[in-house]
Amino acid sequence: MDDELFLNEQIKVVAIFADGLNPCRPLKFKRASGREIVVTEIGLRHPSMQGKRMLHVFDVTDGMADYRIELDAERLVWRLTREADHGI
Amino acid sequence: MEYNTEQPLIMHVDLNSAFATIEQQARPLLRGRPVAVVNRRTIYTTIVTASYEAKALGVKVGMKFIEAARLVPDLVAIESDPTKYRFVYRKLMAILNDYSSDAVMKSIDEGVIDFHHLHIHRPLIEIGYEIKQRLCDEIGVAMRCNVGIGSNRFLAKTAASLHKPDGLDVIDATNLRATYKTLKLTDLTGIAGAMEHRLNAVGIYTPLEFLDSSRLVLEKIVFKSVCGRQWYDRLRGWEVDGQISDTKTIGRQYVLEKRNLKHHEIMARLHNLCESVGFRLRFQNKVARGVYIYARIEDHKYWHASKMYQLPFYSDATIHCLAQQLFFNAPSGIREIGIRCYGLSDNDDNQLSLFNDQFVREQQLVYAVDAINQRFGDRMIHSADTLDTSGIIRQKISFGSTRYL
């Protein structure tokens, strides 16, 4: 039940912007601690509105834990908002 | 009446265990594991959706999480995420709309395509498999759906439930009896406990016996209404469920997070619900004339009160004021509260009022607040006494309705 961490951590992300169904694909991100996480799969990308401001929410995994990272489309800032290993 | 022998042209697409499947899509580590989607992060919460892996181990929708966790110790609970589910709902809706202008979402996880009036140059089965593939390509590889094809909505839905979680079945006049033979009465959509007892009381124990009952028996003895004739036609593949009904009520309910809340804390939560209902009312451009409130108290007992008013209303303040008056007589020991507005009509604003200035000012204020909330985020402006409730009462998605998606 409580295996999920709720965070609000600014991160640095390497991502590819291209065309197709997934125009933005995060490849890896660096946390404030310096730890680098390589994205092995993007589970789902969905938009989320905060008023008129658009956030692009990416549910991703590195194979060890699932992460939620969010791109603020107005401020162009990436944040890590969730981390869960689901007891693995 | 004979069975409907026309070519089946209704397709039902159903994302079974939708919320759990979407979570397994979004979180790859959950795939193949028992997952329960819940509305609150507490062990006393009720399971909204269980994944197929959890269902196979005996977890059922509606079960308390604490009971399910005893049954399946490694059950993973995930709090529901309405934004994510709305996104998948819109994706599914867009896919269905590509095949016919007559595609309707029946709930957040199922849609119906009517292929009547269209010239189709390929079999519907092929289209069904294409929709399945598009779901995987456009949303994610873990997405699965059931597709059912039938001559009416009922048979299409029944077909979609035959081979979960990734089936595609057709029911037509040629295999109607054979299909009913494999089902129980409660497998039929619309037949649950009470209805099953009613049918059992006249000696109907199987879908085949239901099918073979005469129209007269169903109309005059079993249902004692037009429903009997509708069931007679429905079971034979004739369309009786094509009508879209109007919204009759708009409401919200909330199970109190603690049992010992003080009166003013319950009133703050009621106020929050009133604001939410008011927004939904205006979102649908409706006005109401009646307010109904209820409270569930200990031992699953209910208290309720309602009143119909002469003048229509739509503002949060009016709804709250009327709800407050009704709630005055509410008992103690409340576990759950709910409010519904009824007597709905379109807000066409044609009727002139003697008190026009007052109404115009209220209208301008209400719409200005709505505009600000839509621009800067939900509940950006709200009543001061609901300040503490924002993090507690959150929007959840119900399965039955797609009106607010």
CATH architecture of the largest domain in chain B: 2-Layer Sandwich
Shape designation of chain B: globular
**Which strand order do you get reading across the main beta sheet of chain B?**
5-6-1-7-8
The CATH topology of the largest domain in chain B: Alpha-Beta Plaits
Helix content range of chain B: 25-40%
Domains of chain B, number: 3
Please report the first level of CATH classification, the CATH class of the largest domain in chain B: Alpha Beta
How many runs of DSSP E, i.e. beta strands of chain B? 13
* Rg of Cα set of chain B: 24 Å
Structural class of chain B: alpha+beta
Helicity of chain A, as a percent range: under 10%
Distance between the termini of chain B: 40 Å
In whole angstroms, the N-to-C terminal distance of chain A is 13 Å
Strand content of chain A: over 45%
Low-confidence stretches of chain B: none
> How does the overall form of chain A come out from the CA principal axes?
globular
